[in-house]
Amino acid sequence: MSGLEPPSLTGWAGRPVVMGAAHQHDDLEINLVTEGGTMLYLFGGTSVEIGPGSVAVFWAAVPHQLVANSATSVHWLHLPFTTFLGWGLPDTLVRRLLSGTPLVSAPSAALPTDPASFAQWAADLATDHRERHRIALLEIEARVRRFALTSPGEPVRQYTGGELALQHVIAMVRHIAEHFREPLTSADIAGAAHLHPNYAMTQFRKVVRTTMGDYLTKHRLAEARRLLITTDRPITDIASAVGFGSVSRFYSVFTSLCGTPPAKFRRECQGVGRHRTPEPS
């Protein structure tokens, strides 16, 4: 199982390529579709379509995968999540993103300047000029704040296509998203799609290009990171709350895949995180 990709500060544009496997990276990711049809993501336990004129914002530490695409031109921005937390954005926006729910604006909320702005930000971030970086980040923050005024209450557009294998996998990843805190077996997950476990595992790997177990672990780690950022709960409690059977395994897997121990991750985020709220035990 591959680890969490390191955070980045970058932007680019092009034609999307269907991803061979679900992945995670410690960024705020922002997509803008400018031409063609839609991008279909499996995002945690949700299938989400992003169409022309729509802006999508999500926390990329949640496992996500582009599984189908008819868009021909898209802009992407990746911002380190600590940068995003340091903006002090409205709690409703931050909590929704931390919950693993992407925000997707309607095309009617698009700004006519969006394509040119995204291109300019990508160009600025590609330089070594610190002042250009600062200006780009200020403008991106302003765009995200404006985005938050129109999007948080809107439901995401979910996939309604007819491909049977994809429908089966969507049912399984949704079951994982809803039950990852509990002990889960491959039979439990396969049952959500009414499939035999062996066949379900084959279908899952065919679409998501990883095992059910690896996908489940990634989902648990995303939730652990959310709790470390937003609460003061003891790490031992978090390990149990996200479904790890032992604290030692939690420490081992977290450190291996996230590149830092849980306590260090929490300390690094404490200085910028402003949304720490108590959670029920």
Q: How does this structure look, described?
A:
The protein has 281 residues and is α+β, with helices and mostly antiparallel strands. The protein folds into 2 domains: 10-150, Regulatory protein AraC (Jelly Rolls); 164-270, Homeodomain-like (Arc Repressor Mutant, subunit A, Orthogonal Bundle), CATH 1.10.10.60. The chain is 45% helix and 18% strand. The chain is built from 11 helices and 6 strands. It has helices spanning 81-85, 91-98, 114-125, 130-150, 164-179, 186-191, 197-208, 212-230, 235-241, 247-258, 262-270; strands spanning 10-14, 27-43, 46-50, 55-59, 64-80, 103-104. Strands 1, 2, 3, 4, 5 and 6 form a 6-stranded antiparallel beta sheet that branches. Residues 152-160 and 273-281 have low confidence and may be disordered.
Globally, the shape reads globular
Strand content: 15-25%
**Average pLDDT level:** 83
The major sheet is characterized as: 6 strands, antiparallel
Q: Helicity level, as a percent range? A: 40-55%
Q: If helices are DSSP runs of H or I spanning 4 or more residues, what is the number of helices?
A: 11
Outline the secondary-structure elements.
Layout: E1 10-14, E2 27-43, E3 46-50, E4 55-59, E5 64-80, H1 81-85, H2 91-98, E6 103-104, H3 114-125, H4 130-150, H5 164-179, H6 186-191, H7 197-208, H8 212-230, H9 235-241, H10 247-258, H11 262-270
Antiparallel strand pairs: 1-5, 2-3, 2-4, 2-5, 4-6
